[in-house]
Design brief:
mainly beta; Jelly Rolls; 3 domains; 9-stranded antiparallel beta sheet; globular
Length: 482
């Protein structure tokens, strides 16, 4: 999918000598309403009920019996949905919740009023169920379900102090089949209490893991892996009452620790969630591992956890929720073609404020090009650690090549000014390289998050991206990149 095809490209005055080209990032939008009779105007028409359920006057009442609910078969595996419910009454007894067709909790109702949550449906069963358990009694006046049609197009991340940036990541699969439901994990001397607080998702879906007596115990999930392969295990946690907590990774095939029990208690605090991450390589012949979110702690008490992930790769990517099976997030692809009127072949500036996700030994680039590698200007994180490279290729000839040392995983401001026989490279307010001999590319008509024709896809964070259609002065480049 070409994401930038769905993003506006705008020219606006920039205060210097020319217009600036930038991507206007869309917010997620929603599809049509999927429920029949979501306002209960026709009582329970369109719904299937069980236990004690009724509807009249535009209000549906569920309970009070040990197990009551209503549902519609509207969900499709792999699709993301937004649900909004207006809860008019709730007696606080038992549990009022939305679940999927396998009974996995999607959202727990704890109060009255309008409430919204979002989830990805990861099982084949198509039912969305609103139910009460353990004699819960509650009423709702409306339920709305819509497909999220623009989520992750592109994805905007706010984790760096609230400053938004485009997040571009490789394809990854979360091999943990129950990433939030720790009742489905194998437990020894541990108990799980679900929905004990607000998680990083913004929903009340964090879990409390309790060792009631101390003296060891564990909670783990086993999974199939490929031998001699890099993996990363991650999860979110914050302190409870336990005085120590430890993770571990075990080789089920050969027997023995890959990562011995290791304390992560010092990484945590009691007020906010911290993402705990450990990377490792599976041994020769290893085809099954156990990942322990807790092992051999030796002390009684609780820890609060959410969002476990195991992925093939040397670093962690953004969280992929699962609820019964592994889930794959596709590679992000950003391109915008047919914009020759906005890019000047003969002179200009490519400016990007960006950071790499990791020093992973690959080229990762952002470019303006003719859609091929024959004519392009590219800014590339090098396959050598902590090197940024700028390339100018004109008529299939490499005319400019400049490499500079930086910390690639930190956000830096890069500006490359191009003109015939006059090329300048600036980083963070300083001119770091020039070339006074070279041709500019021809036929530039494409902006791509790769090296020019699809190779070396960019994986990282982009805070700003601007293309100027005239070369800027040194003073302007200093101001732009400072």
């Amino acid at each position: 999918m070409s994401l930038l095809d769905d993003v506006s490209i705008v020219v606006t005055p920039n205060g210097y000598k020319a217009g600036e080209l930038y991507a206007v990032v869309p917010v997620p939008s929603e599809g049509a309403e999927l429920l029949t009779n979501g306002d209960f105007a026709s009582d329970l028409t369109g719904w299937t009920g069980y236990g004690t359920t009724s509807a009249t006057g535009g209000v549906a009442t569920i309970g009070a019996s040990a197990n009551s609910g209503i549902y519609q078969d509207i969900l499709t595996e792999g699709v993301r949905y937004t649900v909004t419910v207006n809860v008019t009454s709730y007696d606080g007894v038992g549990t009022a919740e939305f679940v999927n067709g396998n009974g996995n909790n999607l959202y727990t109702i704890t109060e009255t009023g309008i409430q919204t949550f979002t989830f990805t449906h990861n099982i084949a069963a198509s039912s969305l169920i609103l139910r009460g358990m353990s004699n819960a009694l509650f009423s709702v006046s409306s339920v709305s379900v819509k497909e999220v049609t623009r989520d992750n197009v592109p994805r905007i991340d706010y984790t760096e102090g609230g400053c938004p940036h485009i997040l571009a990541e490789p394809q990854r699969t979360n091999l943990i089949t129950y990433s939030e439901d720790f009742t489905q994990w194998t437990k020894v001397n541990y108990t799980v209490q679900s929905n004990v607080g607000i998680s990083p998702s913004g929903n009340n879906d964090a879990s409390s893991l309790t060792n009631p007596s101390g003296g060891g115990g564990n909670i783990k999930q086993n999974t199939t892996v490929t031998a001699s392969t890099n993996y990363t295990f991650s999860f979110y946690a914050k302190r409870g009452t336990a005085s120590d907590v430890k993770y571990s990774v075990y080789d089920n095939t050969n027997g023995g620790d890959i990562i011995a029990s290791t304390s992560y208690y010092s990484q945590l605090n009691s007020s906010t969630f911290t993402r705990v991450t450990v990377s490792f390589a599976t041994p020769v012949g290893c085809t099954s591992i156990g990942v322990y979110i807790l092992r051999d702690n030796g002390t009684a008490g609780t820890v609060i956890v959410w969002g476990a992930q195991l992925e093939a790769g040397s670093y962690a990517t953004s969280y992929i929720p699962t609820s019964g099976s592994s889930v794959t997030r596709n590679q992000d692809v950003f391109t915008r073609d047919g914009i020759s009127s906005l890019i000047n072949d003969s002179e200009g500036v490519l400016f990007v404020e960006m950071a790499a996700l990791a020093n992973d030994g690959t080229f990762r680039g952002i470019s303006i090009s003719d859609g091929t590698n024959n004519n392009r200007i590219a800014l590339l994180f090098s396959n050598n650690a902590n090197i940024i490279r700028v390339q100018v290729v004109s008529n299939n000839s490499l005319d400019v090549l400049i490499d500079k040392s930086i910390t690639t995983t930190q956000s830096n401001k890069f500006a490359f000014s191009y003109n015939q026989n006059d090329f300048k490279f600036w980083i963070n307010g300083v001119e770091v390289g020039t070339d006074t001999s070279g041709n500019t590319p021809i036929g530039l008509n494409s902006l791509q998050f790769n090296s020019g024709s699809g190779g070396s896809p960019f994986y990282g964070k982009v805070k700003q991206l601007q293309v100027y259609n005239t070369a800027l002065t040194d003073a302007q480049l200093t101001s732009l990149t400072t």
